[in-house]
Amino acid sequence: MWTAGVLLALAPFIHRTISAPSGFPNTGNGLWYDKPAVVWSRDWLPIGNGYLGAMIPGGTSVETIQLNVESLWSGGPFEDPGYNGGNKVASEGRITAQAMQRLRNSIFASQNGEVESIEELASDAGAYGSYAGAGYLISSIASSGPVSNYARWLDLDEGVSRTTWTQSEGDYMRESFCSHPLHACVQRISRPPSSTAAALPNLLYVFSPTMEQGLPAPNVTCLNRNMLRIRGRATNLPNGMTYELLALFQASGPRAIVSCTQFPVAYGAPLNASLSITGASEAWVTWVGATEYSMDAGDEAHNFTFKGEDPHDTLLALLTPLAPSPTGAAPSTYSLILQNHIKDFRATLSTPFELSLGQTPQLDKPTDYLISAYSTDTGNSYLEWLLFNYGRYLLASSGRGVLPANLQGKWANGYGNAWSADANINTQMNYWSADMTNLDVSRPLFDYMQKTWAPRGAFTAQVLYNISRGWVTHNEIFGHTGMKGGGNTALWANYPESAAWMMLHVWDYFDYNHDVEWWKAQGWPLIKGVAEFQLDKLVQDIYSNDSTLVVSPCNSPEQVPITFGCAHAQQLIWQLFNAVEKGFNASGDTDTAFLAEVRSKRSQMDKGLHVGSWGQLQEWKLEKDSPSDTHRHLSHLVGLYPGYAIASYVPTTATPFNGSVAYTTNQILDAATISLTHRGNGTGPDADSGWEKVWRAAAWAQLGDATQFYHELTYAIDRNFGYNLFSLYNPYDTEPIFQIDANLAYPAVVMNALLQAPDVPSFATPLKITLLPALPKQWPSGSIRGARVRGGMTLDFSWTNGEFSSGALRVDASIIERRVQVVYAGAVLKAFTTSSGLSIAL
Ligand SMILES: *[C@@H]1O[C@H](CO)[C@@H](O)[C@H](O)[C@H]1NC(C)=O
Ligand SMILES: *[C@@H]1O[C@H](CO)[C@@H](O)[C@H](O)[C@H]1NC(C)=O
Ligand SMILES: *[C@@H]1O[C@H](CO)[C@@H](O)[C@H](O)[C@H]1NC(C)=O
Ligand SMILES: *[C@@H]1O[C@H](CO)[C@@H](O)[C@H](O)[C@H]1NC(C)=O
Ligand SMILES: *[C@@H]1O[C@H](CO)[C@@H](O)[C@H](O)[C@H]1NC(C)=O
Ligand SMILES: *[C@@H]1O[C@H](CO)[C@@H](O)[C@H](O)[C@H]1NC(C)=O
Ligand SMILES: *[C@@H]1O[C@H](CO)[C@@H](O)[C@H](O)[C@H]1NC(C)=O
Ligand SMILES: *[C@@H]1O[C@H](CO)[C@@H](O)[C@H](O)[C@H]1NC(C)=O
């Protein structure tokens, strides 16, 4: 699948008969290997609880776990007190507003409706920085002799990673997991249950910053006999963000001794210590970590410092209940901690939702063998099912912290990460699968928008757009809201619809869950703020003089020209305005003037749906599309997936405005199909990443094309997914870059072939739930339990021999009577109006 070298390296597996290690789930729900990991992004296995992440290579005598703390950033206001989120300063507001106006006029006055550059709108990004790795915990055991019976695996039923092996002294097992309830990660070494051997050889634990390239060395000290304290700064500058990790070591066995040793170091050098354990039958380390970052200090009242409390006391309080009691007895809490973790893990992942693709687990081949043998179109339903569970595992393990899942979830190695582990449209993809697969992870995402985007985004709206209500972001996070300058600004940074796209998640969360209290307190204020900004940003199209409102200047994300009326922007803003109307009543807001303004401007808006001369859906209002443009983004098809401006196109909603053609639904869908075809398979000259392929797969499913859906899905797996099933940006490189968005989007993409219920412009349009819209023949039978559908519904159903067999739908909570049609194979199976508690057999 990749290079000849890789295939040769795998040759030993091909002739060996091996099987999954004992203890591996017999459902096949896990990843396993018969040799230790090599390359971080391709082989190591992730665990996490949202607050912390860790990557496990599966070493034997020496294990080097790489650590992450979710808020550890190398830049921002911590590094540079003058950092202002990449914005102009207030005194530049007038001149910027004039420049904006002049650029608009130039666009409208020019023959081609374009300008070459908007560089003058951008500002220096300042010390933007990057999400950074937090160092390595190295655990050694004084074992000896050759290693045999080696296996390492990640159990996706329990969320636990294990390594087992045999050496001269007997059998060993290392077990690692991150507990969400405890905010802690744990690693234990023990003999496997079957072993009768005596105490473990001596154990030694140290912390290494040097392996985390670029991270300044922290002080490592003995907080007491059984605790290591690791305290450092993300940068060497005096303002570098302070972080701390505390590790508590416990052991059991009649002669177990835990002791901490402070090393002598040269004056001025960072302090260093190690922890040793002797005479133990089992030993475990529990670590917690945090920084002084605070999301609550990202507003004007805190001068956008993002600076909170020193993390030490909070961390200590997390470990205190686990530490030995004052009587000296070491409580044997390990099994309890593990049980509680597994309970929480199941309640989050498998209790609410389950999928079967009719797969047969292949327990005789390690995961790296399966992914190497995988091929496009042929596929392997077991691996496709595993990737589905893995996507949800990764979202649950990275999304449940204080911050949302970033471009690498929470797993990043090294000091500076590609794209700072943060980027424009990737956060959006990360959360595609949350609502529909009943995964309760979205709140940190909404807190993040409310607390880190909206406050400074309001300043950006004022200083950059001369707009005094609402807020805007461009394409970076970590409190960066300005347009990031420095060459090709429009291409990379002119993306003021980034928040408009995110608002669809806000609306969907309410539409799926009907949590009215949340909507009033957080969802509605978010949507209103972004809508207010967009209302003021729309301008008359004085190029076409068709009495429509358009955005200007605009470009597609990461694609020029800089023009007006970009389809991506127009579709998103139209959907945003629909959400305002649909959510107004539940918001309790009495600002009817705002609602009236949204309705009025929505009716005047260009809807971003124009069919061009070769039958394509135009990417820009003026026809500028090239049939050979295979750009990675499907920007103008955002209304096909994940949006609905195309997918739920209703002619009447698009007709009543000047200068528009009243397209039929088929004309719009045909145009989208032509554009999608011409966009290629996601292996353009510009990128070869996984996310662009899975997005295409979802779009093909939306069009009901099972063959193309499966082709793109399997192509993504074949080409981009590594041995550890991480999606890789550049899979052919020796140390590829990890991008999590394809992993996290994957479950949503698979769901889109099995169940679709795209949003509709208004509640007057019936919600259409389509069963098995693009079922590939490779998944002839299967079932889903616990799928969520917008409108507050839960759906279970199954299929056999490629045909729907039975299902049940429940309306959990209905806040408005909505008409619903359940459609299968082109026919309406059931039509009903929602009411709370309604049950429908299908
Ligand atoms: C607030 O932060 C800015 C940088 O964004 C800095 O220039 C200014 O001095 C700070 N003001 C106060 C009162 O700390
Ligand atoms: C900025 O907005 C204000 C209020 O709408 C307006 O009076 C002013 O002319 C605008 N400035 C520029 C330079 O467009
Ligand atoms: C502490 O010592 C260990 C073992 O020698 C070493 O690997 C590590 O890098 C040192 N840590 C610091 C902070 O210098
Ligand atoms: C490490 O400890 C030294 C000596 O106590 C102290 O001067 C230094 O600031 C500490 N470094 C960090 C990053 O906390
Ligand atoms: C559009 O209208 C403006 C004035 O409102 C005018 O200056 C411009 O020439 C018109 N453009 C076209 C193409 O008619
Ligand atoms: C909001 O409530 C009003 C008054 O009851 C009703 O006429 C309208 O249809 C409702 N709007 C939506 C979007 O539900
Ligand atoms: C349509 O355009 C004409 C001429 O440009 C204008 O007079 C009319 O008001 C527009 N109608 C609407 C509904 O915007
Ligand atoms: C993907 O597209 C490229 C470029 O058009 C083509 O060479 C390649 O064969 C395609 N591969 C698949 C699996 O579709």
Account of the protein in words:
The protein is of the alpha+beta class and about 850 residues long. The chain folds into three domains: about 5-75 and about 130-350, Beta-galactosidase, Chain A, domain 5, CATH 2.70.98.50; about 75-80 and about 95-115 and about 375-755, Glycosyltransferase (Alpha/alpha barrel); about 780-840, no CATH class. Helices cover about 30% and strands about 20% of the residues. The protein has a nine-stranded antiparallel beta sheet with strand order 1-6-7-8-9-16-13-12-11, sandwiched between helices. A hairpin with a 4-residue loop joins strand 6 (about 150-155) and strand 7. The protein starts with a helix and ends with a strand. Bound molecules: 2-acetamido-2-deoxy-beta-D-glucopyranose (8 copies). One 2-acetamido-2-deoxy-beta-D-glucopyranose binds near residues 547 and 658. This is Glycoside hydrolase family 95 protein. Keywords: Hydrolase. It comes from Pluteus cervinus.
Q: Concise description?
A:
The protein is an alpha+beta fold and 842 residues long.
Features:
842 residues; alpha+beta; Beta-galactosidase, Chain A, domain 5; 9-stranded antiparallel beta sheet; 7-stranded antiparallel beta sheet; 20 helices; 29 strands; 21% strand; disordered N terminus; binds 2-acetamido-2-deoxy-beta-D-glucopyranose; hydrolase; Glycoside hydrolase family 95 protein
